[in-house]
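We emphasize that the prediction below concerns an isolated chain of 98 residues; any contacts that depend on oligomerization or on bound cofactors are therefore not represented. The input was used exactly as deposited, without trimming of termini.
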Amino acid sequence: MAAPEYAELYERLLDAERKAARLEERAQISERTESTLREDLERERARADAERERSEKLRRELEATIEAAQERIEELQRALEEASRQTCWKSFRRWLGG
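Result of the prediction step, given as a token string:
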């Protein structure tokens, strides 16, 4: 082979090596990007899980508060009914004269 042919082959080899290096860099960037995205996804999943747990806790607390409020309303209604009966009874006795 003549020197120009070697030079051309050598240039082609250098070109191929540069292309291979660029492809290797791209592969590394892709791997880092994929790793970062995977970490982001895991963090987001953990955050979503924590948010679901917090929401469930708040829902249970709200239900308990509503139940306690309903029980208190029923107690007050019973007390109001009893007070109303006693008031009516007192008025009736006064009306009877005694």
